Amino acid sequence: MYRDTKLNFIMSIYSLLLAQTFSSGEDIFLLILLLLFLLFLGLFIWSLIWLYKDAENRGKSGCLVIFLVLMCSWPVSILLWIVSRPD
Length: 87
Description:
mainly alpha
């Protein structure tokens, strides 16, 4: 019995928080924007890790290649690396 009331209490607080958090369309827009930002950040970090490993496997300095990519435009410089990377 105690467990059921505790669970109901937790569920009611949870639903209250959700109702407060996502009460307007602006909040949902901000949540979607946050998720897109996190997706972009994950893609950015993944691409830098891939770039480092690829450069090291091809006998180039991974740190130098990442530095050059970060100094130039990020997606364009990765495409340039893919086109001009050594065999």
